[in-house]
């Protein structure tokens, strides 16, 4: 007489494909940070925007300080890069305005300037800039500082 052995082969169960609760804010976590670049020099503005885009950021641009302030309130960027010398409302005034308002005071600001004297750098930092980069600058240095400021701000 032949006796059948007990089967030790596990059975396969298909996983459940129910889409119960979605992962909250998953699209926000995947979105690239938005950086506003304000510079009256179109060549510099376009170069910075291009390098930011190549590094995985979403760059938006403004050609003067007034436009930059309007865009900050409308677009709510994760960071702002400001040229110090712009016609009308300059970068120092924009930075001061940003850091004077509770709605925008937490946005990191990187100042760009051809002014390299210590007194100019100190003035930029005094009005609220988080960092100050002197023109001409290396695009790699720009991206390094952007990454550092965004990481320091929790982005």
UniProtKB/TrEMBL annotation:
Lineage: Bacteria, Bacillati, Actinomycetota, Actinomycetes, Micromonosporales
Database matches in InterPro entries: CheY-like_superfamily (IPR011006), Sig_transdc_resp-reg_receiver (IPR001789), WalR-like (IPR039420)
Gene3D superfamilies xrefs: 3.40.50.2300
UniProt-recorded name of the protein: Response regulator transcription factor
Top-level taxon in the UniProt lineage: Bacteria
4-aspartylphosphate modification, residue list: 83
SMART domains: REC (SM00448)
Organism: Paractinoplanes globisporus
Keyword field: DNA-binding, Phosphoprotein, Transcription, Transcription regulation, Two-component regulatory system
Stretches assigned to the Response regulatory domain: 34-150
